[in-house]
Amino acid sequence: MDDDYRNTKYCPKLSDLKEKKEKVKEAVLQEHPRAKDMHTYISDNRLCYKQQFIEVYNGKCPYCGVTLAIIGWKQFEIDHFIPKDSSRFSSKAQAGSIENLVLACYDCNRSKSSLELSEEDLYKVDPDGSDICRSFFRDEDYYIRISEDFSTDDAVNQFYKQLGLDRQIHRLDYLLMNMRGLREKLKDKPLAYTHLTEAIEMLQQKRR
Ligand SMILES: [Zn+2]
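Above: inputs. Below: predicted complex with zinc ion.
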């Protein structure tokens, strides 16, 4: 995942997501040995698993890239990558298996809704895999775009439109992520740090 449209150069890379998710599942099972539907436990704001799940994704929506620094943790949700009411699942517990759970910001999760892609298309937009970064890229104006290889791919186009990955808000978020990353580098330059903080706060206000 070299060119990950979800990351600025300041963001740590998303890595070993599947392994890290398994660890969260183990944590659930340790306290709740009879747990079947992982979604019930991980999506519960009162329990600690959601926080752990957010950390798996470096506090970042793996669809649009927005981070915890920009939206609150309660605006993160636990998405069923393949919708929970899909005929592929024979039970709620099967739909809520850890493999099928993905972190998503409120906006992406709501927009994605019950979008279901066919088996052979899933890998193209699976946020836990590396191919999603071949399907989409970030252009120099901070727009998320469909890469040339997938420009005529129906599934990728459908996913892109339904999630609203072309929306302006994702540009603003990417700008904010860059500004925050830069600000960290300017800690020993108080004046620049203060100006940047003011600009970040102004943009955060606008975002709300
Ligand atoms: Zn998102």
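Residues 61, 63-64, 66, 104-105, 107-108 surround zinc ion (CB under 6 Å).
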